[in-house]
Amino acid sequence: MSRAHWSKAVVIIVLIVGGLLAMMRYTAVDRPGVAALSNFVRGAFTPLQGGVSAVIRGVNNLTGIFISKEKLKQQNDALIAENNQLRLENNRLREEQQELKRLRDLLGFKESNAAQYELLAARVIARSPSNWYSTLTINRGARDGLTKNMVVITGAGLVGRINAVSQNTAEVLLITDGEGAVGAVVLMQDTRTPGIVEGAGDGLLQIKHIAYDEPLEVGHTVITSGLSEIFPGGLPIGTVVEVGREAEPSGLLKYALVRPNVNFNHLEEVFVLKRELRSRAVP
Prior knowledge:
Blueprint: H1 3-27, H2 32-112, E1 117-127, E2 135-138, E3 151-153, E4 158-165, E5 170-174, E6 182-187, E7 192-201, E8 204-211, E9 221-224, E10 236-245, E11 253-260, E12 269-276
Antiparallel strand pairs: 1-2, 1-12, 2-5, 3-4, 3-12, 4-5, 6-7, 6-9, 7-8, 8-11, 9-10, 10-11
């Protein structure tokens, strides 16, 4: 006999015996023989009834475990979704906080230079795909009064000049580009070294053809000289990080590598110098 048939037979026997017990209880006269038989049957089937009850309780407990596990999974999924939402919200708040700090710095710079320059704030919206250190695009254009060769700066220093203008945007040629040469002066304690600053690659600038006897050293500050037709004097450019001899026959000239003050990798907002209100004395 198969297990299924055997289980069905046991259930039928239990039902029959239960029915007999019920009939005996309600129909039998109070006779010693019948009572004895009833007690015998109850005693014989009590373990079976207990086993059936244990199985039922086990099934109920197992069902409860499955239900509890499903509830825990639902609660876990809800907590994960809530955590992801909180992360997004936290990142958004951090970004807004950083943007607020940048805007406050820009506002402070604009207010401190309001008597000297007419400045227009602009946001960087694109960069040159061919060369990170070549050009960038800002969200201001001809409708804002911008024209070619207007100077672009930040609070840290010189960024470059406008190279092309459309109605709503403008392309800025960075000073790190090879064509973005700037008339500059290297500041020292008592003397100045004139030179032309141009892009040297890897985000650095260089000043070439410096006389060998010029007291040029690492750490000296470079600013615009004011001798250019485009760039006003006194704008910070960068710091000398290397001085060496040029590879020319006489060996009487040297060069300097300059690290820009502006971090072009993280440049997000700039100012366009629309007009110089008064000439700035070069320190």
